[in-house]
């Protein structure tokens, strides 16, 4: 049996704004309502199910997306067009930079609810890391 991640719930202050943010920034299909969720499907059959956090404090998470070089250029272009702050590291100490870990490119940025997002072009551990 192959175990695959099918979906994850992304608690959000404003699920519509969050789902639209992801679909627009990543160039994904429009969100689809499913019960109390707004579902955004990514390319590997994983669904991000956005749910209103209500009175609950949003527990911020980290979501990393593996993208092609061309997709990185497109998404990173949208990040810059929107004037979103971005960093080369998860500790947010290298603002306005991207990283080149494992021979690829990567960048971190926040979604509207404060989740730390990352796009990378090379899976971590694929070769020796570099700055």
| Biggest beta sheet summary | 4 strands, mixed
In angstroms, what is the radius of gyration?
A: 15 Å
Helicity level, as a percent range? 10-25%
Query: What is the H-and-E element order?
Result: EHEEEEHEE
Q: Would you spell out the secondary-structure blueprint of this structure?
A:
Elements lengths: L6 E6 L2 H12 L5 E3 L2 E5 L5 E6 L9 E5 L2 H13 L24 E5 L5 E5 L11
Parallel strand pairs: 1-4, 5-7
Antiparallel strand pairs: 2-3, 3-4, 6-7
Describe the structure.
Helices cover 19% and strands 27% of the residues. It has 131 residues and is of the alpha/beta class. The chain has 2 domains: 1-59, Signal recognition particle alu RNA binding heterodimer, srp9/1 (2-Layer Sandwich), CATH 3.30.720; 60-131, 2,3-Dihydroxybiphenyl 1,2-Dioxygenase, domain 1, CATH 3.10.180. The strands form 2 sheets. It has a 4-stranded mixed sheet, with helices on one face. β2 (32-34) and β3 (37-41) form a beta hairpin. The termini are far apart. The mean pLDDT is 94.
């Amino acid at each position: 049996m192959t175990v695959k991640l099918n979906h994850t719930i992304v608690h959000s202050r404003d699920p519509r704004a969050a789902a639209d943010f992801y679909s627009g920034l990543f160039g994904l299909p429009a969100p689809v309502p499913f019960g109390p969720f707004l579902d955004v499907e990514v390319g590997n059959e994983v669904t991000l199910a956005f749910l209103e956090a209500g009175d609950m404090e949003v527990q911020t998470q980290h979501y990393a997306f593996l993208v092609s070089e061309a997709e990185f250029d497109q998404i990173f272009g949208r990040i810059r067009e929107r004037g979103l702050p971005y960093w080369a590291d998860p500790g947010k100490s290298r603002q306005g930079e991207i990283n080149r870990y494992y021979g690829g490119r990567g960048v971190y940025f926040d979604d509207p609810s404060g989740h730390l997002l990352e796009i990378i072009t090379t899976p971590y551990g694929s070769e020796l890391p570099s700055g």
